[in-house]
């Protein structure tokens, strides 16, 4: 029964989230932290951080990590299948139709309406992650430093992650 609940939670996430992993974050957080209480808000942020550092889409990585943490390897498999199943079925069954009618005003209208919604979902995820991750003035400085570095330079994200980890060690342990 627990596996069915895990599968259905991630099936819902995969079915009702458009715009990729970042747009899925508010729904993932709602299901994982608030509805099912599988993770705390802090654990959720940690899972997102780990998902960001791992290769692959963030939603799939998050599902795999949550499933593994909650129910070990089988939980990881169940959650991962749940989050990708609807997208897989839609893409494989609708690809030809979508390509054929991509220029139609109706399809164009749907995508034009979805784009700003996706940005709104991503912004909501940023606000939620900010509230949980920026706990004090030190973490605010790290956040602002990363934002400025990424905005002003072409520094590789892996280097940013490594430097942020080092800054965390220096600021919080020394």
Automatic annotation (TrEMBL):
Domain of life: Bacteria
Membrane topology designation: Multi-pass membrane protein
Annotated TM spans: 6-25, 73-99, 106-130, 156-173
A Pfam family it matches: Chromate_transp
Single GO MF annotation: chromate transmembrane transporter activity
Statement: the UniProt record of this protein carries the keyword Transport: no
UniProt entry tagged with the keyword Nucleotide-binding: no
An example Gene Ontology CC term for this record: plasma membrane
Subcellular location, record wording: Cell membrane
InterPro entries reported in the protein's UniProt record: CHR_Transporter, Chromate_transpt
Keywords noted in UniProt: Cell membrane, Membrane, Transmembrane, Transmembrane helix
Family: Belongs to the chromate ion transporter (CHR) (TC 2.A.51) family.
Protein name: Chromate transporter
Taxonomic classification: Bacteria, Bacillati, Bacillota, Clostridia, Peptostreptococcales
């Amino acid at each position: 029964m627990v596996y069915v609940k895990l599968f259905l939670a991630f099936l819902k996430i995969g079915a009702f989230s458009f715009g990729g992993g970042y747009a899925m974050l508010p729904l993932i957080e709602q299901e994982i932290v608030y509805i099912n209480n599988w993770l705390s808000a802090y654990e959720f942020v940690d899972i997102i951080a780990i998902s960001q550092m791992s290769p692959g889409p963030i939603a799939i990585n998050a599902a795999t990590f949550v499933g593994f943490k909650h129910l070990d390897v089988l939980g990881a498999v169940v959650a991962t299948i749940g989050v990708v199943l609807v997208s897989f079925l839609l893409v494989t069954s609708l690809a030809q139709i979508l390509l054929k009618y991509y220029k139609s005003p109706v399809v164009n209208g749907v995508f034009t309406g979805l784009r700003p919604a996706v940005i709104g979902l991503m912004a909501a995820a940023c606000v939620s992650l900010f509230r949980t991750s920026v706990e004090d003035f030190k973490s605010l400085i790290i956040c602002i430093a990363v934002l400025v570095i990424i905005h002003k330079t072409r520094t590789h994200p892996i280097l940013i992650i490594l430097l942020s980890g080092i800054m965390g060690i220096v600021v919080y342990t020394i």
